[in-house]
Every structure is written in structure tokens, then in C-alpha cells.
Amino acid sequence: MKRSIITVVGHDTVGIIAKVCTYLAENNINILDISQTIVQGYFNMMMIVDMNRISKDFGTIAGELDELGKGIGVIIKCQREEIFAQMHRI
Known about the structure:
Blueprint: E1 3-11, H1 16-26, E2 30-39, E3 42-50, H2 58-72, E4 74-80, H3 81-87
Antiparallel strand pairs: 1-3, 1-4, 2-3
Helix pairs in contact: 1-2
């Protein structure tokens, strides 16, 4: 399974989850686990997703998610699970 970690951070607004999840569904990305919270008006979401069925390359997906985030006023980062795990071991 090609798992990746997607994080979304920014000021809370209506529709963040809907827009991100719509993009994922349109690109055959399955959400395996999701956690989200709002702390004093700041939205924070972390997802573990399965990218086995994507038709675009990973870099394109990560770039499009970055652009989507800019459009809705949040920061969206997409990292391969193994890179994420190595970065957080240090």
C-alpha cells in the first residue's frame, strides 16, 4: 500500500474538509484515518491516505493540494509515509 500523510493547517473556515475530501475522492485517494481539531479558531487536520489507485504522479498530487490550500486559505502538505516517519524520528 502506498500510504501518505496529508496535513491541513490554517484559520478555520466553512468547507475546508469538504474541499479537501472532494479533491481526494476525484483522484482515487482513499482516506484510511483522519483526525481534525479546531483550537482558538485554528483548524488542524491530519490524514493517512492510500494512494494505490492514483493516475497522477505523487509530485503532481502534492502540488495540486498545495494550490488547493492556497485557494482556501490553509497550508496543505502531502508527504510519503516513510519520509514523514523518518522526519519525526529525529
